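Hi Y.,

Following your request, here is the sequence exactly as I used it, all 77 residues.
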Amino acid sequence: MSLPLSQMKTGQKGVIVQVAGGRGLNSRLEAMGMRVGHEVTKVSSMLMAGPVVVRVGNTEIALGFGMAQKIIVEVSE
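Below is the corresponding structure, written out as C-alpha cells. Let me know if you'd prefer a different format.
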C-alpha cells in the first residue's frame, strides 16, 4: 500500500518509491540520505502539521509536513 510519508503511523516502516517534487526537493532529500529504494521508519509527528521525524539507517531526520507529503512510501505490513 503506497501513501505519503506524512500519513504513515508512528513506528511504521516502508520503502521510498517516489518523490513527487522538483529537482530542488530531490537534491535536498538525497543530501540527507533519503533516496528512492531506501527504507524509512516514522519516529514521530505532530497533529495535522509540523515536523515529521523519520529514521533512515542510523540517522533521524526532521522534515516539514509539506515535504513529507511529497514522499510516497510503500508501507510494509
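Residues 23-31 form the longest helix (9 residues).

Thanks again,
Q.
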